[in-house]
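Batch job 17 of 40 flagged for manual review because the log was empty.
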Amino acid sequence: MRRMGRSAGMWGAGRLWALAGAVAAGGCGPADAPCGPCPDVSGRWTVQAQAPITACGGPPPQASLELTQVAATVTAPLDGGTLSGTLFDSNRFSLHGTLAGSGEQRDSVRVRALYLPGLSDGGMAQLVEGSWTWTSAATGCAEAWRFTAQRQ
């Protein structure tokens, strides 16, 4: 098998597909439980976002996410607010929160991703299958972006 660059090929195509298939079979739903013991996802992550899947004129994903973790609870600051959520035993996590603003209506943000740990040969940890959804409180329009991220 041809070896790709460290960030894309650290798993090799076959191992990455096998992991994706195993995770898809396990899903990220009612059967998922908070992790324990948990992998360490804390730190600064550089986000590479694609064009939005749906567009409403909302803010794009941040260029980086600073994740803080205590056991299975994960948080990240976001525009004066905080995203918070859970890291599951499938290595998936889900965060949600609202953007700082005035008034009672506050736009919401939901972030979901799959954590792939780095390898001992120096391969970088990654977030894959990421989705960043901003929902307008005023219109209800939801703007969705796909992303990947790499730990800095």
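Reviewer: the log was empty due to a logging misconfiguration, but the result itself is present. The chain has a mean pLDDT of 81. Unflagging and moving on to job 18.
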